[in-house]
Amino acid sequence: MSSEQFELIARERRRTGTAPVRRLRREGDVPAVLYGGGKGNLSIAINHDVLFHSLLKEEFHSAIIVINTDGNKEQAILRDVVRHPHKSAILHADFQRVEATKTLVMSLPIHFIGEEECIGVKTAGGIISHLMNEVEISCLPKDLPESLELDVSKLNLNDSLHLSDIALPDGVQITTLMHDEQHEHDHAVVAVLPPKISAAAEEEAEAAAAAEAEGEVDEAEAAEDGEAGEKDD
To answer: Which of 63, 70, 106, 111 has the fewest CB within 10 Å, making it most exposed?
Structure first.
């Protein structure tokens, strides 16, 4: 479970559309939507600076957040954030209501521990390559951890660890392994590679990250022209 409790103060937005949203941003707020949980969509506004600084905390992205809208408190998780492509600004956010008896599916960060003691690095000059930095899990809200850990200290050169090697808290499952009896989706998460192979893998990862960032910029620019993220359900 997350060690920190988050609460965001919000107010209901009575008007939506391009002009009201731009005015809202000029006044220092972020337009957002609270949806799901068997209730209708609720258009809300959240103070930009409060949300911006909350997003800097890794645990905020996987926490159960209390959304306090004009005194009405509801539990939710962060589902999406649209950022300005050139400024340190949040353009829009989506929050999904949480129901105690309904399973959550979301991505959690992987924390790699024991890197300084890794055998393959200390004895063979290998380099640790993170093949995944997060993993999608399924659990009830009460079982939601803020992150997962994977110990790499015992890895030798050319060794790797897979999804099935991640120690999971009670009630938490990795979605890709839930119905994977043949272990076809037990992907490698981290490996200790010789320096030359590691450098090539790093370049490939950087190219993929650059392509993903370009797509995010396109999405943010579209959001600037109108309100993004409104849900139909």
So the answer is: 70
Please tell me the pTM assigned to this model. Answer: 0.78
Mind listing the pLDDT tens digit for each residue in 161-218? 999 999 999 999 999 999 888 778 999 999 999 987 666 666 776 777 677 666 655 5
Q: How many residues does the chain have?
A: 233
State the DSSP string of the chain.
Answer: --SS-EEEEEEE-S--SHHHHHHHHHTTEEEEEEEETTEEEEEEEEEHHHHHHHHTSGGGGGS-EEEEETTEEEEEEEEEEEE-SSSS-EEEEEEEE--TTS-EEEEEEEEEE--TT-HHHHHH--EEEES-SEEEEEE-GGG--S-EEEE-TT--TT-EEEGGGS---TT-EEGGGTT-TT-TT--EEEEEE-HHHHHHHHHHHHHHHHHHHHHHHHHHHHHHTS-------
144 within 8 A of 60, measured Cβ to Cβ: no
Residues 25, 131: Cα–Cα separation, whole Å: 38
